[in-house]
Amino acid sequence: MSDQEGLMEKLVSLCKRRGFVYQGSEIYGGLAGTWDYGPMGVELKNNIKNIWWKMFVQGRDDMYGVDAAILMHPKVWEASGHVSGFSDPLVECAKCKKRFRADHLENKEKCPECAGKLGEARQFNMMFKTNIGAMEDDSSVSYLRPETAGGIFVNFKNVVDSFHPKLPFGIGQIGKAFRNEIAPRDFIFRVRELEQMEVEYFVRPSEWEGKFEEWRNGVHAFNEAVGIPKSAVHELEVGDGDRAHYSKRTIDFEFDFPFGRKELYGLAYRTDFDLSAHMKGSGKDISYFDEETKERLTPHVIEPSFGVDRTFLAVLASAYAEDLQNGEVRTYLKFKPSVAPVKAAVFPLLKNKPELVNKAREIYAELKKDIPQIMWDDNGNVGKRYRRQDEIGTPFCITVDFDTLGETPEMRDTVTVRDRDSGEQERVAITDLSSYLQTRIKV
Predict the structure, then answer these.
(1) Calpha distance 375→43 (Å, rounded)
(2) Would 24 disulfide with which of 34, 37, 163, 180, CB 3.0-4.6 Å?
(3) What is the pLDDT of residue 2?
């Protein structure tokens, strides 16, 4: 087993053990391509989404947020081309009957499972089809959305009519999408239910290149904000033959995952394809009157697309670390404090001493008012608590001991704060504790 394969096993094991990610429907044997986020996973995921939203929506004057419905009129997906073209090449083994994506196979003729002969490739549409209402016929067909962008484009006119934004401007959304993957794999990397963070940024055709570069830099700024190192991210300029037919330029941002270099994000210049397609499909005029140039136009669009689940995995892989402490291997997640699911944990030195427990509870309750992501931990000895908190990536551990109560007069009303990465400890006054932590968790 290679070191990278070993890292993937360690990440999956840690995620289950520490409540980051569980197999979907696990007690029934699981459901392939589905995963449930546990208590630590939900917090980490929300932190990632909040950083994205603040950076690309709330932190800008030219952005508007929406939350569109997952179920949409089926003509939305006909107009966008998904009904006819959202497909992958599928092959089936004549011997074991397993199915695979043809473009993921090195040998297109031999089954990777049983070495049987593979059949001819055929196109498989990845959209999940469902029915709306009491009747199940062609008139009731709908789809679970395969991407979040569709909900943005069909709301373009609504946002323009409500807010009269000036070009360039963007619409951002975070939401679930669904893809009936032929062969989901690599933990949460390729799944059937995923979450996306997407922006459709509308520009004048003459301005797209400059704005494309701005969003390119924005992708790297986001990586830095969530703790993904620049050295692990690689830009791939997608060539003419590999780009979507409507794209004039696409960059894939690839990350060095434990299972290889794979796509993390995408940045595409989609011209006016989407708005034009929906204008034609709906029969509605959703063009834009530019007050500055006094002309009516169909804006072009730049789309930076981020996967929440892939970001989650990249953040985990980037944060995973091991070192030696007291002759033992210590596993810890070196999260940036701003993204860590728990910012600090509060301990009483001994849980059978009421005076220590009461004081620690008092400190915990006060801190939680200012910093909601605070954990109480009195399970096991202090060393075991440190190891547990290290594995969930808690940047700071706060211990209330007898010095806090005045055993050493000069240390009365102070606590020990331990740094996760260095293991170093310092005494901090209780009155300064909230500001001490808040200053550091913004990093």
Answers:
(1) 12
(2) 34
(3) 62
